[in-house]
Amino acid sequence: EYIKNLSALLAGELALDPDRIEDEIHSKSSLFPHVPYIIKAHLTEEQHYRLCQLERDWPGLHAEIGSERFY
């Protein structure tokens, strides 16, 4: 129930398919339950801050900003 609701929320925020997100969560958490993984990279600033606001209410959700270096 929790993963289904979280998948629907993330699908709405990130314009992705909720079934694909749910399947990805189940498959990755069954193999590595305590390892974080990326659902979508290269978010807009608006999407990032919206997800940061949702972190309080959704345990396991974490959005962070990273940098890439090109040499």
Structure description:
With 71 residues, the protein is mainly alpha-helical. Helix content is 52%, strand content 0%. It is built from three helices and no strands. The model has no long low-confidence stretch (mean pLDDT 93).
Please outline the helices and strands.
Layout (H helix, E strand, L loop, with lengths): L1 H13 L3 H14 L13 H10 L17
Helix pairs in contact: 1-2
Task: State the gist of this model.
This protein is an all-alpha fold. It contains three helices and no strands. The model has no long low-confidence stretch (mean pLDDT 93).
What is the 3D form? globular
Give me the number of helical elements. Answer: 3
Number of strands: 0
Q: Which percent bin holds the helix content?
A: 40-55%
- Based on CA atoms alone, the radius of gyration comes out at 13 Å
Order of helices and strands: HHH
In the predicted model, the low-confidence regions spanning at least 5 consecutive residues are none
Intertermini distance = 45 Å
Give the integer mean of the pLDDT values.
Answer: 93
Strand content: under 5%
Secondary structure class reads: mainly alpha
Largest sheet composition: none
Keywords:
single chain, 71 residues, mainly alpha, 3 helices, 0% strand
